[in-house]
Amino acid sequence: xxxxxxxxxxxxxxxxxxxxxxxxxxxxxxxxxxxxxxxxxxxxxxxx
Length: 48
Known about the structure:
The protein is mainly alpha-helical. The protein has one domain. Helices cover 92% and strands 0% of the residues. It is built from 2 helices and no strands. The chain has helices spanning 2-18, 21-47. Helix 1 (2-18) runs antiparallel to helix 2.
């Protein structure tokens, strides 16, 4: 899951550099939610 978040983050940076603001914003939103989900699952797995 962390790999997907990094992939979407890189995609957002590349799209932003090329001027595709809509795709960059959407990719950053997806990356943000994937990182949040990863952190929640990591904390749950450490507690169990």
